[in-house]
Amino acid sequence: MNKQADAPLERGLATLALLIIGLISLANVVVRYFTNASFAFTEELSVFLLVVLTFAGASVALRRNRHIRIGFLERLCPALRTPLIILQWLAATLVLGLVLWFGGQFALEEYQWQSESPGLGLPNWWYVVWLPVLSLLMFVRLCQMTLERLRGGEHDES
Prior knowledge:
Elements: H1 8-35, H2 42-63, H3 71-76, H4 81-113, H5 125-128, H6 130-150
């Protein structure tokens, strides 16, 4: 793996999301222990942050060449390496394109309908807009990793 291959924005975002999830979960447990009541907003915020954490972590994994793919076939028949890399890029682009399109449509609808979240009463589009944004970041990292692999700079981990 190229030591310089990194996704610092997504890595920082994932770290921040995990830190906030841990802190609000700890605070909720402590409050529940002492008062027999809990914060109502923690579930809503935790679910949102888990989605951000998942997409940001997946983006980091893409950039670092750590996603599951057809590595066995690439090693079995080196002549198929380039077509398989392109096939992997096409499949991932299709999936990310669908998430980008439908996530964008969903965020736009939530914005137009002015719907609010049940726990905090915040606009739902604040939560949903991260789907297309992080999908686009994942696509950028996918293209970076694919280009490096096509140039021979990135190889599968054994």
